[in-house]
Design brief:
Largest sheet: 2 strands, antiparallel
Structural class: mainly alpha
Helix content: 55-70%
Shape: globular
Number of domains: 1
Oligomer: single chain
Strand content: under 5%
């Protein structure tokens, strides 16, 4: 009796005989961008938004969620279409997919978070040309399956967002004494002579903060240090 060799997809294009959902390779797709292959601190991509939108924590969180949505969906769409996209126009296809998703995010923010939408308007639009999004489509989604591409998109977006949120946390806290618009540093601390560091609200301090994060990361993970 012949065995049925047809693989039936179970969930999200994962076949019966494919590797487990939470295999070591799949977990690595999520964990690597958080440390060893972080888009900002290791690949040095997406620095512009790290400088521009990290004065306050709220816009940084909204940008992180927006990038997670755009990267996850665009990676899945490009992976599904990867065998149908002509090589000559692949960049145009990437831009069409990303810009459509960014338009959805922009309209959603205008409907449900208008104040944040006004603050992030130009930067939400710039997700279209974000090196991280385009880079993962070209380097990964175009040559891998749907589920792996989904994990890669989510992992890199979270890795990008973690740095944004860290930078915004310290800039808002030390620059204005607030977090998410609420005062965190008590009044008695100011009465003792403490002053907010206005320099933290300037763009150069975002770059310095990212530099400090990179230094800390390399000091505990020496394999990231470039040799000679």
């Amino acid at each position: 009796m012949k065995k049925n060799k047809n693989k039936k997809p179970l969930l999200l294009f994962i076949g019966k005989n494919s590797e487990p959902i939470f295999s070591k390779k799949n977990k690595k797709l999520l964990s690597d961008p958080l440390d060893d292959n972080n888009p900002i601190t290791v690949q040095v991509l997406g620095i512009c938004s790290a400088l521009a939108i990290t004065v306050q924590l709220k816009p940084a969180i909204v940008m992180t969620l927006s990038v997670i949505f755009v990267m996850a969906c665009s990676n899945v769409i490009i992976s599904v279409l990867r065998n149908l996209i002509p090589n000559r126009i692949r960049i145009i296809v990437f831009l069409v997919v990303i810009s459509s998703l960014v338009a959805l995010v922009d309209q959603f923010l205008k409907a449900y978070a208008y104040d944040v939408s006004k603050e992030l308007s130009i930067f939400i639009g710039l997700i279209v040309t974000n090196c991280i999004v385009m880079g993962r489509l070209e380097a990964f989604a175009l040559g891998n399956g749907v589920f792996k591409s989904l994990l890669d998109g989510i992992g890199n977006a979270i890795g990008y967002g973690v740095i944004l949120i860290l930078v915004a946390f310290f800039r808002e806290l030390l620059g204005s004494g607030n977090l998410m618009g609420y005062q965190v540093i008590p009044d008695f601390v100011y009465e003792m002579g403490y002053e907010n560091n206005g320099l933290m609200l300037l763009s150069p301090m975002a770059l310095i903060t990212v530099g400090i994060i990179i230094w800390i990361q390399r000091s505990r993970n020496e394999k990231l240090i470039e040799q000679g």
